[in-house]
């Protein structure tokens, strides 16, 4: 969800899906990419050229409507090469949706906790990402990552804590 620009790492995700589709075609999974931007044409071209029929690309969606997509998703995948933080991870976790994020996202160092509220993979590494997705699919890992665990990991990331931390900088 967001801007479709190069640094967002969408091509890492596309390459991972291509590998998964080639080697693990029995999985009934779908990927949804929401957003618009300079890479949209290239993404559509890649999807068409590699016949990735389980990827759906939606244009920009109003933030008020995004909650339905977070609720629908088993996971949020944030494959960014560089992301100062990655607010979509906060939004997804707030809705109880675990995250798969690259280590290029600032939230990978603090917010996302491997095997607790999501998973972290090395940025630009589509092979590791594809292996991680297949591992999750094979183990049905989303059952193990439940909303109570996600809620516990979010306790230290709220407005009051942020304001307090900033106030203490003086």
Task: Describe the 3D structure.
With 170 residues, this protein is α/β, with parallel strands linked by helices. The protein has a single domain (2-167), classed as 3-Layer(aba) Sandwich (Rossmann fold), CATH 3.40.50.2000. The protein has eight helices and six strands, in the order βαβαβαβαβαβααα. Strand 2 (31-36), helix 2 and strand 3 (55-58) form a beta-alpha-beta unit. Helix 1 packs across helix 6. The protein is globular, with a radius of gyration of 16 Å. The chain starts with a strand and ends with a helix.
What characteristics describe this protein?
170 residues, 8 helices, alpha/beta, 14% strand, 45% helix
Give a nutshell description of this structure.
This protein is an alpha/beta fold.
Summarize the SSE layout with pairings.
Blueprint (H helix, E strand, L loop, with lengths): L1 E2 L6 H14 L7 E6 L3 H10 L5 E4 L4 H10 L3 E3 L8 H8 L4 E4 L4 H4 L7 E4 L4 H14 L7 H8 L4 H9 L3
Parallel strand pairs: 1-2, 2-3, 4-5, 5-6
Biggest sheet: strand arrangement: 1-2-3
- Return residue spans where pLDDT drops below 50 for at least 5 consecutive residues: none
Sheet bearing the most strands, described? Answer: 3 strands, parallel
How helix-rich are the residues, as a percent range?
Answer: 40-55%
Strand content: 5-15%
Q: What series of H and E elements makes up the topology?
A: EHEHEHEHEHEHHH
Q: Globular, elongated, flat, extended or rod-shaped: what is the shape? A: globular
Q: Mind telling me which CATH architecture this is?
A: 3-Layer(aba) Sandwich
CATH class: Alpha Beta
Q: Quote the average pLDDT.
A: 88
Straight-line distance between termini: 35 Å
**What's the total helix number?**
8
Q: Count up the domains.
A: 1
CATH superfamily: Glycogen Phosphorylase B
What CATH calls the topology is Rossmann fold
What Rg is obtained from the alpha carbons, in whole angstroms?
16 Å
Structural class: alpha/beta
SS elements, strand count: 6
